[in-house]
Structures are given as structure tokens and as C-alpha cells.
Amino acid sequence: MEIIAQYGDVLIILACVVGFFMAWGVGANDVANAMGTSVGSGALTIKQAIIIAIIFEFAGAYLAGGEVTATVRKGIIDPTLLEGNPELLVFGMISALLAAGIWLLIATSYGWPVSTTHSIVGAIVGFAAVGISVDAVAWGKVGKIVASWVVSPVMAGTLAYFLFRSVQRLILDTADPFDNAKKYIPFYIFLVGFIIAMVTFTKGLKHVGLDLSFGQSAMMAVVAGILLALLGTWMERRVKYNKKENEDYSFTSVERVFGILMMFTACAMAFAHGSNDVANAVGPLAAVVSVIGAGGELAQKSAMPAWILLLGGAGIVLGLVMYGHKVIATVGNNITELTPSRGFAATLAAATTVVIASGTGLPISTTHTLVGAVLGVGLARGLSALNLRVVGTIFMSWIVTLPAGAGLAIMIFFMLKGIFL
Amino acid sequence: MVANSSFMNMFVQSPVKPLQQHIEKAHNCAVQLIPFFEAVLAQDWTEAEKVQQRISSLEHEADELKQYLRQHLPKSLFMPIPRTTLLDILRMQDRIANKAQDIAGIMLGRQMQIPASMAEPMMEYLKCSLSVTRQAVDALNELDELVVTGFRGREADVVEKMISRLEELESETDKREKQLRLMLFKLETDLPPVEVMFLYNIIDWIGELADRAEQVGSRFMLLLAR
Fold this sequence. Notes:
The structure holds two protein chains of two kinds. Helices cover 79% and strands 0% of the residues of chain A. Chain A has 13 helices and one strand, in the order ααααααααααααβα. Chain A has helices at 2-40, 46-64, 66-75, 86-110, 116-132, 139-172, 177-204, 214-236, 252-293, 306-334, 340-360, 366-379, 389-420; one strand at residues 386-387. The termini of chain A are close together. The model of chain A has no long low-confidence stretch (mean pLDDT 87). Chain B is an all-alpha fold. Chain B has nine helices and one strand, in the order ααααβααααα. Chain B has helices spanning 6-9, 16-31, 33-41, 45-71, 83-109, 116-140, 143-148, 153-187, 193-225; one strand at 77-78. Chain B is elongated. The mean pLDDT of chain B is 92. At the A-B interface, helix 1, helix 4, helix 6, helix 10 and helix 12 of A face helix 1, strand 1, helix 7 and helix 8 of B. Strand 1 of chain A pairs antiparallel with strand 1 of chain B, so a sheet runs across the interface.
């Protein structure tokens, strides 16, 4: 208790700095995969992608990031066991942030594909299990989270498969693919708007002071979807069929119509990514702030201050502006195979999966979800070659990242304890 | 920090484009046989040599494309086209270029003469054989469309038609081959025997250009059959 009274400000500042740094890292590195699909497909320029990412990552973080943040903040650890020693939670969360940050730095500099989500979950479980007690970990919840890491790529893959098959059936494999593209793409745009709006209205807007019933939310989401579809139809008018460009590849004009759809799915993806990944950075920070703010009470009920989500969103945007554009360019240049028709199927499937996970409060890896979604398009025989080795590296990253994050968190936890106690 | 992304590493260069470039190269190589035969018929050996060198360098370029494609097809690739089928198609395509080079090489080396009465049917026969390789190029050109439509439906029908046309052209070439052999058989007693032997070979090899192109087509057909 005294420690919190004595060093409260220092600890909050420390947590803010580390949390902000983590958010910066998410913006600098992780956003690239979410936006790279749109850049690679040629639907967006890098500049447009950055602008969309800034707006929608931030919106996603602020409007729909609450549930996952709550899970990271108080879902993984059972706080009743910490009654009387709230400072342990503070130290633990700070060490988890530091550990995940350090691990990500090491991994990125060696070029290992690791997930921010896995690092932070591993770190929190690590310090709680070893630093406090094995019972302090809410294993049921952790089990659910780990299961969601398997389920999310599979679900995204399945969605992408069916989305792409529907595109093949309704548009590509018809007598007049161009006209059908113009006809059906507004429906897909409706879907994009509806899903994002639905999750935001049902799960997100409470802390902004808007509390809607399920029916109201559904209504609003339908309206949002229709408005977006109308906007899409209006944008489509500018795309004209050009006979010449279709000589070599007969779907070139069709792909340009899909380019419009891709702009919408890019927004959805950025939103989804912001809503899920901001929690990795601000979840532990929120835990620290709420404990210290309550003067050491383990305030379960207290709502999370909105400024924490804002801080996370700002960190993501800063990382994006400072460094992320380079990574987006690199990723975009390497995935030109993902034309808008394929890219949209993969991105929408991933965005839907991630947004649903965000709504349910499950921290998942956006990248792995995207990998699953792209494989889904591949299973529809829609991509000419995919390197399956990536599936292996994903498993490796699970096996390595969880213990590494945990181990580092445990070390830092005992160091902090040594310094302050 | 390095840009690392397991997501990005999923995407490898598509084998479709290089495969299309390769058959185009092989066809371009074989098409040079027309100016080559014209030079041979005119007994212009300096021109023939020039064309032969062009054929050689095109064949070499095709070889390089083949090597490149093979090196970029690791076993861990997940493709809608089975790896073995793809390599088979590539091998058949490569033989078209090889055969063209053989024909030009031996005809130039031996300064072969084509009997005047056979000149025109020989040219017709060559052109017919090259129309088969041309048809194979056109069919292969649809491969990227096939991939995006999942090898089903309309696009598959289009390709199927192209391939049955290819088969028609090939049997047309076969017919001409038989006629030409018969023609040579009637002339052979008046010609130097060694020369005749090689003429039979040339007729045979021109037919092989069409055969290989047809094999490319039938392998290609396998992709649709699933």
C-alpha cells in the first residue's frame, strides 16, 4: 500500500511510457500486414493507406477496443488473490509490458515473425503464474484465448473461401463479369459497413455515452451498411470498361471495380486491427492506472478512463507515421499477387473475424488471421502459389513467443520487486 | 527494425507468368524456322546461319526461363496446379525450342537441300505444325484467368474449346506428315541415301514440334478435369 502511495506517479508514468512504446510498435510494424493487402493489390496508394490507417486504427482503438483491453487488464489474472498486495499487480503489468516490448524488439531485429498479442499474453501469464501463484491465472479464460488463436485463422479461412467462391460464382464466372461486378459489389460493401457498425454499436460505444439496445444497434448497422453501399455505387460510376486493357488479362476492368470495394475493406481491416491490437499496449496500462487510481484498491468495477484508449490510439498513429509507412510499402510490394478481387475476400474475412473477436474480448493475432484468410482464397484455387512454410513459422512463433514473453516478464517482475520493495 | 512479416512471406512469385513467357519464347524460337527454311530453299547459307543463330539464342533464353522457374518452385508451395503437372508442361514446352534448334542445326551443318517438288508442301507442313504451337501459346495465355475463376465454369469451357482446336490442328499436321513422307518415298531412289535419311529425320522433327505442343495441351487439360 505504501509503495503505491509513495511511488504512484512514477509507476503510472513508467507504465504510460512503456505502454505508449508498445502501441508505437504496433503502429510501426503490425499495421503493415493489415494495410499491405490494399497497397499490394493497387487499390490504394501508400499515402491513402496511411491516411485510412490513421483514421480507422484510431477509431477502432477508441470505439471498439474496450472489450479486449478489459480482458488483458483483468481477465487473465484473477485479482481476488492479489487482495492486500495490489503493488504486485502493478509491478507485474509493467513487467509484462516491458517484457513484451523487449521481446518484440529482439524478434524483429532478427526477423522472426512474432505476434504482439502472444507476447503480451505470454508475459502476463508468466509473471502471474510464477511471480504470484499458479492459481492467480484465470486458466479458463487463458484456455479460451489460446483456443481463439486456433479458431480465428480457421474461421477467417472459411469465410474467405466462401466469399471468394461467391465472387467466382456471381461475378467472374459469368457472361458479363464487368456488369455483374458493378451490380454485386455494393452488396459486399453493405456487408462491410454492417459488420463493422454492428460490432461498434453493440460493444463499443458505452464509454462514449451511447447505450443502444441490440435492436437499435442492428437498425443503425443496416442504415450504415446501406449508406456505404450507396456511396460505393456512386464511386463505381467513374469506373468505365476499357476494352484494350483486357486483352492480356480479361478481368483487368473488373479488378478496377473491385478496387473500390477494397477501399472499404481496407478501412474495415484498419478498424478491426485497431480494435484488437491496441489492447496489447493499453490493457496492462489500464490495469496499472486503475489500481493506483483507486489508491491500491483492486477496483474491479471501475470503468476504464477513455484517455488510456486515446493514448494507445495516438501511439499507433505515431508509429505508423514515423515508421509504418516503410513497412507497408515493403509488404505491399511483395504481395502484388493479391489482386483486389482476392484481396477483398481475404481482408473482409480477416476483418470480420478480428472484429468479432474484439467484440467478444478475445485478443487474437491479426496477422495469423490474415494468413488463414489468404489460405482460404488459395483453397478456392484462386491463387497460383502460396508458400506453406509460413504455417510452420506461425507454430514456431507460438512455441517460442509464449515462453520467451513469460520468461522475460518473470525476470523483470523480480527485478522491479527488488528495486521498489 | 527490419520489416518482417510472416504474412508477406506467404506470397511467392506466381509460376503462371514465367510459364506463359516460356511457351511464348519457345514458340518464337520455332517460328524462326520459317525464315530459316526460306533461306535454305534459296540456298542462301549466310542468311540461314544468321537465322540459326537467332534460333540458338532464343532457345538459350527459353532455357534460362526454365531454370528460373524450376528454382522458384519449392516443394512447400501450395498451388492450384499440381507441381508435377506444371513441371511436365514446362518440359514439353522446352522440347519445342530444343527441337527447333536441332532442326536448324542439322540443316545448316549439312547444308541440306530440299527437293524442289517438295518445297511448297514442306513449307505448308512447317506452318501447320507451328499453328499448333501458336494454339498452345494462346491456350496457356488463359491460365491466369483460369486460376482466378478456380478452373471452373465458362473460362474452363473456353480453354477446353481451345485445346480441342489444338488437337484438330495437330491431326491435320499428322496428315501432312504422312503425305510428305510418301512424297519423299517416291523420290528417294533418285536422291543420295544419306541425304534422304536426314530428310526423313527433319520431317519427323517438324512433326514433333506439333506433338509437344499437343502434349502441353493435354497436360493443361488435366488441370480442368479435376
